[in-house]
Amino acid sequence: MYSRRTCGLCDKARVAIESVRARVPFEFDEVTIDGEDGLEERYGLRVPVVEVDGREAFEYEVPPGELEPLVAR
């Protein structure tokens, strides 16, 4: 997940991701884009951005019911 340090949507996305991880174990990495010029240019204000298997799957919101089948494979 690409996020910012101060981001309410990122906090909500993290909670959604962790709720799915409680049922379906998977690796989770979070990258803070603050101060990273290339990442800030790429993601700007559209955080959080969640990738699954290297592909963008969600931005702004992470519905647990949509995330779970993607990580359960």
Description:
The protein has one domain (2-71): Glutaredoxin. The protein is built from three helices and four strands; from the N terminus they run E-H-E-H-E-E-H. Strands 1-2 form a two-stranded parallel sheet. It has a two-stranded antiparallel sheet with strand order 3-4. It has 73 residues and is an alpha+beta fold. The protein is globular. The protein has helices at 8-21, 37-43, 64-71; strands at 2-3, 31-32, 49-52, 55-59. The mean pLDDT is 96. The longest helix has 14 residues, at 8-21.
Name the features.
single chain; 73 residues; alpha+beta; Glutaredoxin; two-stranded parallel ribbon; two-stranded antiparallel ribbon; 3 helices; 4 strands; 18% strand; globular
Radius of gyration, in angstroms, nearest whole number: 12 Å
Number of domains: 1
Main beta sheet: strand number and arrangement? 2 strands, parallel
- Envelope shape: globular
